[in-house]
């Protein structure tokens, strides 16, 4: 066989596989039975040419009937948790292995796929305590730096507290005098303009 005929054959194979794959996905919503036929032909063509598809492409459709897997519509997926304990010379480790159970709702075919292995790490002393501790009340004494001057944060709180007290005093004054001072002098407008 020459290289040109070999490359021509490879091109024909890939174009046939591409057509079957795209046609199967295109016809899924319009005619599911035709989509199953195209995907079944795709799988048969792979075995005929002695090719293997990548795992994600192979898992897209049912191996038995060719139905494209759409979880919740025509396909059901379950994750099965299995725990195994391994004991080394120094410590015990607990491993969790997930198995994915895939069930086609069209033909009832069930496939099992290997999931991931997870090692459960032992908790550190630091993690056993709650991460978010209860909030302690803030003391009113101003914090000082090494020089002895108060920091900016307590001064800001003190300044805001002073403004709040001034506002309360103005509101009380306005309520006590009633609505007799309708011209607005010494009222809320003056306070807000002073900010």
From TrEMBL:
Residues 141-195 are annotated as: Disordered. GO terms for biological process: tRNA processing. One of its GO terms (cellular component) is nucleolar ribonuclease P complex. Residues 156-166 have a biased composition (Basic residues). Coiled coil: none annotated. It comes from the Eukaryota. It holds the Pfam family Rpr2. Residues 141-152, 167-183 have a biased composition (Low complexity). This is Rpr2-domain-containing protein. It comes from Mucor velutinosus.
């Amino acid at each position: 066989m020459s290289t040109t005929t070999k490359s021509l054959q490879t091109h024909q194979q890939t174009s046939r596989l591409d057509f079957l794959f795209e046609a199967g996905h295109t016809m899924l919503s319009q005619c599911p039975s035709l989509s199953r036929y195209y995907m079944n032909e795709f799988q048969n063509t792979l075995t005929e040419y002695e090719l293997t598809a990548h795992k994600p492409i192979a898992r897209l459709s049912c191996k038995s009937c060719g139905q494209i897997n759409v979880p919740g519509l025509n396909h059901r997926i379950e994750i099965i948790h299995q725990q195994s304990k391994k004991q080394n010379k120094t410590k015990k480790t607990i491993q969790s292995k997930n198995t994915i159970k895939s069930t086609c709702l069209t033909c009832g075919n069930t496939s099992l796929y290997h999931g991931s292995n997870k090692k459960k790490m032992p908790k550190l002393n630091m993690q056993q305590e709650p991460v978010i501790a209860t909030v302690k009340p803030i003391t009113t004494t101003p914090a000082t730096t090494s020089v002895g001057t108060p920091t900016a944060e307590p001064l800001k709180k003190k300044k805001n507290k002073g403004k709040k007290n001034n506002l309360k005093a103005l509101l009380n004054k306005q309520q006590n005098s009633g609505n007799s001072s309708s011209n607005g002098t010494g009222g809320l407008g003056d306070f807000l303009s002073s900010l």
